[in-house]
Amino acid sequence: MKNKDALTRFVFENTPIRGTIIQLDEAWQTLLQRKDYPAIVQTQLGEFLAANTLLASTLKLNGALVMQISGDGPINFMVMECTSDKHLRGMAQYKETVEGTLLKDLFGNGQLVITVDNNKSNERYQSIVSLDGEKISHALESYLTQSEQLETRIILATNDHHACGILVQKLPGKTEGNEDDWNRISQLVATIKPEELTSLEPEEILHRLFNEDNILILGLDSYSFQCSCSRERVSNMLISLGQEEINSIIEEQGTIDIDCEFCNQHYTFDKVDAEELFATDIHHQAPKTKH
Ligand SMILES: [Zn+2]
User: Fold this and answer.
1) What is the CATH number for 18?
2) What pLDDT, on a 0 to 100 scale, did the predictor assign at position 120?
3) Which distant-in-sequence residues (6+ apart) come within 8 Å of 273 by Cβ?
4) 31 C-alpha to ligand 1 centroid (Å)
5) How confident is the model over 179-192, as pLDDT tens digits?
6) Is the C-alpha dihedral spanning 254, 256, 261, 266 positive or negative?
7) CA dihedral defined by 265, 266, 271, 272, rounded to 10 degrees?
8) Containing domain of residue 259, as a range?
9) Contact yes or no for 264/35 (Cβ under 8 A)
10) Which of 77, 256, 282, 283 sits at 20 to 30 Å (Cα–Cα) from 41?
11) Do 164 and 205 belong together in one domain?
12) d(CA 261, ligand 1 centre) in Å
């Protein structure tokens, strides 16, 4: 693939259907470097990442789209965020042994919560999606079709190097007629092979699937894995807890260990680090004047 971490938008010229192809490589590999996931968890996480980006592409996002699953299955937590700046971050938590392939086996009694945060208006929309079907793509399809009245087809494919997906959707507000086109196109999209989705250029994928249709490619967006967490942010959070609280944790546990819930970055503070936190804090509050 020529373009790294690219999202391709397209529309059908003669029927009100739009689509998106996501092909992530570097962003996906950066995410994988944070934690050594078992193969089954890695597959779910890759599909979740591609699905999150595809879903974000269908929204007028002015902030962030967060998808989160909590459950009592072997994978007990998974989170993924896509921002309107095209930054992606996410991670999964799992128990020792992860077996199975179906959503119910992997996540148990779980729910998918989809949150759209609007930075400008400070509004937040939340939808709760039941984990129906065998795969994440099925759960999202039935949510979009039933709750949002947006007929959608999503195909995902992931391996060690790529997290990819394709989405086609009937354009909102134009649901009348064109049923035959929709049936044909949604059936065609399902014929894409995983290895095609992860290796071919978007133009080739579209040509293979829809060579009878005229398709306009609307443009490319570029994504990256980026988390807004930092040691400085964590330090500020610890400072806000107060020196007494921090000292008592250090006394009890030896170190303070914090994992970012979005990117799994690990932050450790030992006794010396903790002392430094408050030393610099005092320094900030009462800067020495130069003579
Ligand atoms: Zn982070």
Assistant:
1) 3.55.30.10
2) 76
3) none
4) 10
5) 889 999 999 999 99
6) negative
7) -50
8) 231-285
9) yes
10) 256
11) yes
12) 7
Could you tell me the distance, in angstroms and rounded to a whole number, from the CA of residue 282 to the centre of ligand 1?
27
Q: Ligand 1: distance of its center to the CA of 181 in Å? A: 43
pLDDT in tens, 44-100: 999 999 999 999 999 988 999 999 999 999 999 999 999 999 999 999 999 978 888
Distance 82 CA to ligand 1 centre (A): 13
Measured in degrees and rounded to the nearest 5, phi and psi for residue 12 equal: -85, 135
Cα(260) to ligand 1 centroid in Å equals 5
The answer to whether position 1 is within a domain reads no
Average pLDDT on 101-112 reads 92
- When divided into structural domains, the chain yields a total of 2
Q: Quote the ligand 1 centre to 45 CA distance (angstroms).
A: 16
Which residues face 115 on adjacent strands?
66, 126
Q: Report CA(77)–ligand 1 centroid distance (Å).
A: 15
Q: Tell whether 133 is covered by a domain.
A: yes
What pLDDT shows up at residue 30? 94
Q: Are 69 and 149 found together in one domain?
A: yes
Which domain-ending residue is among 225, 244, 264?
Answer: 225
Strands 256-259 and 224-225: unpaired
CA of 206 to the centre of ligand 1 (A): 35
List the shell of residues around ion ligand 1, using CB closer than 5 Å.
227, 229, 260, 262-263, 265
Give the DSSP letter string of 193-254: -HHHHTTS-HHHHHHHH-TTS-EEEEEEEE-EE-----HHHHHHHHHHH-HHHHHHHHHHHS
User: How close is the Cα of 225 to the center of ligand 1, in Å?
Assistant: 10
**Prediction pTM value:** 0.87
210 shares a domain with 273:
no
Structure tokens at 76: 């007990």
**Ligand 1 centroid from CA 27, angstroms:** 14
